[in-house]
Batch of 4 targets.
Target 1
Amino acid sequence: MKKIILCLLPILILTLSSCANQQFSKGSQGAGIGAASGAIIGQALGRNTEATLIGAAVGTMLGYIVGNEMDKFDKRELNHVYEFGPSGRSTAWTNPDSGNSYKVTPQPAYTPPQAPQALCRRAEILATINGKAQTTYTTACRNNSGQWELQN
């Protein structure tokens, strides 16, 4: 078990260190969200440091894969869901080039207390990449140009 942790820890560190610059890629954003989610799940299930680290490492890799696999077509579809998707109703699509499929269920829009001029929405994304399903949760907020940007 410790060998697994030692093998996965450098991947986690390298992936998270790529988040340090100001231009976050979708893969980096997914990795950050996945790491946090995986650590929480790992701790809840295993109730020890090993489980937390394994959860964080697995979450990082899965989050990076989901975020990185979305191409321009998928990003356009996701933006459309954030903009027009009814809260609680899923919208699904399959990328014609990659064959990856996504099912996105947005929640109601809200204004965060730290940025009352912003409009944000949380969504559940079920991504099926190479036949493997992965669920992640994201939040997007409108930027100054009116585009939805994924948050960390």
Target 2
Amino acid sequence: MIEIVFLVEEDPEGGYTARAVGESIFTQDDDLPSLREKIKDAVTCHFPDSEKRPRIIRLHEVREEVLVL
């Protein structure tokens, strides 16, 4: 695996959450810079073998917006 993708969303209770697509990895934090570090740590823990660890972590920020007519 060369790349892993995370969906990053604002948590309704505050902060942000990140969930990997296709892997059982989830983490959360209060701000985006801290969340990025937690994502790196989570990927390292999930893939202890550095040969099998993804080299690229792609963050896809999801933002929901409601428009009223």
Target 3
Amino acid sequence: MTAFDMADLNSLIRLRKHEVDEKQKVLADIYRQVEVLETKKSELLARLERERKALDDNLTLETRDFYGRFENAVRNDVERIDVEIKNLEVHLEKAQEEVRVAFAEQKRIEIVNERRKEEEADEITNKESRELDEIGIEGFRRKEKP
């Protein structure tokens, strides 16, 4: 293993980390979009409930008519938001899978890199051990010669 090969893996690891980060940003953005829609939906339903309570206090024909139109508009908005959320959930699942795949690929490369480092360290240790053995044997031979 050369230093050049190790540098290549380190660059590849940095690239994969960047890809994971970018995919996580996309995922976070989708989560934010869903959260915004859920908040809008909750606000609409809360407003609908407030108007319903206000209607109970004022039971004129005009207010009932107004409330009926208002309720239909709110229900339509809620349905539209639900559709948007469902569409985002499809994108969310896809983005989650992309993050999982990118992270798994990053981890595979990191594991290969660690194994290579360990192999290189073992190689160096074995080489040093062989060299020390040769020095020891040579020293022993010199002592044995008359």
Target 4
Amino acid sequence: MIDISIRKETPNDITTIHQINSTAFETDAEADLVDKLRDSGVTIISLVAEVDDKLVGYILFTPMTMDNFDIKIAGLAPMAVLPDYQNKGIGSTLIEKGLEYCAKENYAAVAVLGHPNYYPKFGFVPSTRFDLISEYDVPKEVFMIKELKRDSLSRISGIVKYHEEFSKL
């Protein structure tokens, strides 16, 4: 097992974060999205993973909104790990620590558009269990949510929306 350190991003990390996202994804879209979200002034939880003092992974959480409901939901996206460091537990560690940060920041839940065989191991379930759907036309099993505050989603329903920058992808 490798020694993984997770911490909040610093200004010195921004260029490397862009490179991690550009390398981990097929295009620069996610890397550019992260830069735009950071520049927009939206409150973010932005974490990096280090192995041997080298940045090798990244995760971002941004506030989501719902019409007619005032609830604090974070969206997990993107998460990236350099190819040479994938399948070593770095992504899992980023998610676990990110969920801890979201709970500390008083988020009621975290949503993700992701692989339905990966995210359930972190407690994510299809959002339709809570009568919630994504603003995007995606298969219902890929839009998942995890309650961080018990029963916080029991009295709400509707469409969960990412920050407007996501729709420009």
